[in-house]
Amino acid sequence: MSRKLYFLFALAALVIAACNTASGYKLGGTVSGLGGGKALVLEEATSGQTLTVNTNGSFTFSQGLQKGASYQVVVNTPPQAQSCVVENAGGVINADVSDVRVSCGDSGSLDTSFGSAGSTITPLVSLAAQAKAMVALADGRLLAAGEKAGGSYPDLALARFDVDGALDTGFGSAGRVVEDLGSTSRANALLVGDDGTVVVGGSAYGGDSDFVLIRYTASGQRDAGFGSGGLVRTDFSGSHDYLRALLLLPDGRLLAGGRSGDGFALARYKTDGSLDSGFGTGGRVRTPMGSGGVGVYALALQADGKIVAVGKQYSGGNAQFAVARYLPSGQLDSGFGGGSGYVLLDYAGKNDAAHAVTLLPDGKIVVAGQADNSSGQGFPALVRLNADGSLDASFGSGGWRVLSSAPTGALYALALQPDGKLLLAGNAPDASFSYAAFLLARLLPGGDLDPEFGDGGLSITEFGGDAWIRALALQPNGKIVVAGYANGASSEGFALARYWP
Length: 501
Prior knowledge:
Elements: H1 3-23, E1 27-32, E2 40-44, E3 50-53, E4 57-60, E5 70-77, E6 82-87, E7 90-92, E8 97-106, E9 119-122, E10 129-136, E11 142-148, E12 155-161, E13 176-179, E14 185-192, E15 198-205, E16 209-216, E17 231-234, E18 241-248, E19 254-260, E20 263-269, E21 284-287, E22 293-301, E23 307-315, E24 318-326, E25 342-345, E26 352-359, E27 365-372, E28 378-385, E29 400-402, E30 410-416, E31 422-429, E32 436-443, E33 458-461, E34 467-474, E35 480-487, E36 492-499
Parallel strand pairs: 1-8
Antiparallel strand pairs: 1-4, 2-3, 2-5, 5-7, 6-8, 9-36, 10-11, 11-12, 12-13, 14-15, 15-16, 16-17, 18-19, 19-20, 20-21, 22-23, 23-24, 24-25, 26-27, 27-28, 28-29, 30-31, 31-32, 32-33, 34-35, 35-36
């Protein structure tokens, strides 16, 4: 071969290599679940290029990526009334990529990849059980706590589930932990620390009932470094005490809330489970208000360290939403409730109860529960308060938002989505008004039901028997998981369901 011909071949090879380098490696994958006639806009966040997808099946971005480049596929614009989740979304490209998976579903509908067609009922030790608290772990697994019925008395119980609802056999005994404390015991609250340790809060009975905390290792074994053999019991001067809420404070201490006698009760604990004497009196706070009540159901921690507690107290012969705010020291905050540190909120002169609370970025407070109308019929209801405890008149009707389309229902859990929409969970009647059913709802930031979620903002799931939600969590991919109780056609126990956001 002549030197000239060799040079031409070498030049051609360089040109071809340069063209391949210029076009780069392909980036694509598949889309599933996209509704007919709907469009999805994907974005490769590193390069900023977008791609509109109109059909299910394979997709490829038009612009290739150079070897060694990072990529991250995100949803730029979801389909109308749907949400989408991206798997295998990012990495470093060294060859063509075709395994990015985008799955979509109707907002508020059951995610059929979870459990059995979207839900799962898990008996604990073959006996009825109900979940009252749940946490979504950083890897998407789920931890739920509550009680197991049957036997001589209910027992405190918890279970861990994998990302898609199957029991995680690496936790406790085949995925379950059941505590027989010698008398009736129930778990109502649950926390998971950064180190994976689990703290369960509830009540146990003896001569009277006490606050109970149990700490476990990440594998579900009692943590001997906490309390006595992992267990702490707290008595408020011989009264009946019920723990219903827990907060993990930034420094690792624990704050518990519930009822002592007929008022609000709080207790703060050090990391070893001992009472923190720097809080209240010997680590405890009792707050009578109104003419009595059933105490705290939920807690929230403000950025300034102040504590918001909500529950149910009586005044003028009827139960009302009760909201109190405390200073970090345990004293009532005189800057809340017109100087008293708390407010009692009455909807229509009947009986109301607050079960859940969340804080908004602007400092406002949303409280959810049940409110009776003037005829005594209960409805899922919530209020929004200004930072000083006054009703926010710009929300709903005078600060109240009552879901009149779900009679005889109630709300027990709240969660704020990253887009500012508010998720509400509890129970409502099934279609035949024969049983209670799971109720999930979503509100727009202004308080109106989100028309793109479920059926006009509501999603009701029936199990063929009574069912109710007591806890709500968002998995890392944004999917919505609820937990509670269901008595289905062939099973009864901890009930979980997952929905498209």
